[in-house]
Design brief:
By secondary structure, this protein is α/β, with parallel strands linked by helices. Helices cover 27% and strands 20% of the residues. It has 4 helices and 10 strands, in the order αββββαββαββαββ.
């Protein structure tokens, strides 16, 4: 648990520096094109290629937990390159996820704005992305950190603070969550190498 929380805290604090996508999230549908994160008591499943990076798989699980924190319902995380639901959250890194690469190859997802980038991501709602799938929320990163940043952008948009665990920031409860149609590509961070300085003078680094 501590390892997972340190990963979450580190990534989300760095995300806050670079800025999040402006996603419009509602507790009821505003149009027929809204994407349901959770509707009528059912949470939309998350799909992530098992061959993708570990941080992407961990972050996908944390997104499912964040949805549960808000709604009480947890999305199922499927580590597979096959989507078997009518609506899906598809997460992956360009070149490391078959799910994402197929969408790009079939011109269902345009990643030209982030390809070969640095810690960038795309969040896009896609109609009929795959045969048998009606709609998907796609989170794609140019590298593993970019994918993780995109995932946590959704977490913050639904109301989960990056510091919910470390600072007990409360989460506002909602029964349903819908995301308005979105096609967002993040910019390259203004600071390329970012990190956290641990001050070992005050209380020591042993607790870490």
């Amino acid at each position: 648990m501590m390892k997972r929380q340190i990963i979450l805290w580190t990534i989300t604090c760095l995300c806050t520096i670079s800025g999040f996508a402006q996603l419009q999230v509602n507790d009821k549908p505003t149009s027929g094109n809204d994407f349901p994160l959770i509707a009528k008591g059912t949470a939309t499943p998350v799909y992530v290629d098992d061959a993708d990076h570990e941080v992407v798989r961990i972050s996908s699980g944390l997104l499912a937990e964040d949805i549960q924190r808000v709604t009480g319902k947890k999305s199922k995380v499927n580590t597979s390159d096959k989507v078997r639901s009518k609506v899906a959250i598809i997460v992956g890194t360009i070149g490391s996820s078959k799910l994402i690469d197929v969408l790009v190859h079939e011109n269902k997802l345009d990643v030209s704005s982030i390809r070969n980038g640095w810690e960038q991501y795309i969040i896009q709602t896609v109609e009929s992305p795959i045969k048998g799938v009606d709609k998907a929320l796609v989170i794609a990163g140019c590298d593993r950190r970019g994918t993780a940043y995109g995932i946590f952008a959704v977490s913050e948009a639904i109301g989960v603070s990056p510091l919910y665990w470390w600072a007990d920031v409360p989460v506002k409860k909602k029964r349903e969550l819908y995301i308005s149609p979105v096609n967002y590509a993040s910019k390259t961070p203004s600071v390329k190498y970012r990190g956290i300085f641990i001050n070992d003078e005050g209380w020591g680094i042993q607790p870490w």
